[in-house]
Amino acid sequence: MVSRQFIWSIIIALIFFTAMVAVEIHNERFYMNDFKVYYEASSDFLSGKNPYHEAYGLSSGYYKYAPATLPFFALYHVAHFEAAKMIHYLICSAMFVLSLIMIVNYLKPTNKSNNSRYLLLFAIGLVVAAVHLTREMHLGNINLVLIFLVVAFAFMYGKNHKLVATACFAAVLLLKPYMILLGLPLIFKREWKMIFQTAAIIILLSIVPILFTGLDMFISMYKAWFNNMLTHNEGMFSEHTITSIINAYTGLSLTPTWNFIFYLIAGLLFIMLRFSYFTRYKQYTQPLFLLDIFAQLAILPNLMITDSQHFLFTIPLVCLLIFYLIKENRLLNWVVFTLLIFFYGANSNDLLGNPLSDTFDRYSTIGLANLLLIGWTWVIWNKKIKRQEITFSSL
Are 289 and 189 contacting, i.e. CB atoms less than 8 angstroms apart? Predict the structure, then answer.
């Protein structure tokens, strides 16, 4: 039986995303240029051309995903572009809503009299993400699909549906190989079979395009894709990476290589913090697994040169923090949270105006607030898990 809270969450989401697309259409800004890249690249793929040699409408509009993803994007060609981008909008919206529903459903109180907190957590999650969602939907990227796959991976593993979890994680790595950082919890859990199965799925999916292209075009596409990946970040800049934060507050300019170094440092830090669990000196519980997956997802935009809407990756972790705030209900916590969320999620030219928004970018407010949100949630949840105040059954 479908709960009343589930129905209301769907209604809230429908109103939210309908209003968002209505404003985009009214302002004649429903471009979805990133989706245009996926659509036109898969069109060239279907016609036998190499899609990695073209920029589809934007200076940075090269198709950047692996050839194995092209057959999936080609499915959009059941419809004309204008209809296809609406389908894409609906799919991404649904996946983000399902992600929130999965999270808050596991976090909601067992006491039915307090189930109103379920809707409060869901609504706050939408509001916190609103600015980043607006940009994400304006561009038509697939970050919401990635969030859904990561959340499904975490929870399906917790429910012991390991094959589904493996498939979700393989899809994540196929779309964004740099998300391999999220595989560390599998190592802590010594899930060698899942790691092998993930690699096997990726390899099998990676050779699917040969069925459409033949061997020569298959090799040519992969060569072009690798070359595009090597040059993808050339000339690009993000105001909110760790290197940008260091530059904003110290004046020290670090080369792009430092982003890779900080990525390695983040991985090593996770390993150091959880090494005792890997050695089985301590039990690596499901709540720790969930926390680590969400924390690692959240920190990725601080490590990679990318657009600000990628900070949507922090929303699952923020939901854990909101759950704590609702449960504890302390004014000071809410004040600090509101302040951090303002810097994390309110940087918009439409809301703040160009001068103030540019100032926020110059001081890397999104990236800095993101790191503080990660640190706060990490400390709180580790303490609660250590005190056994949270068990996976209560999630």
Answer: yes
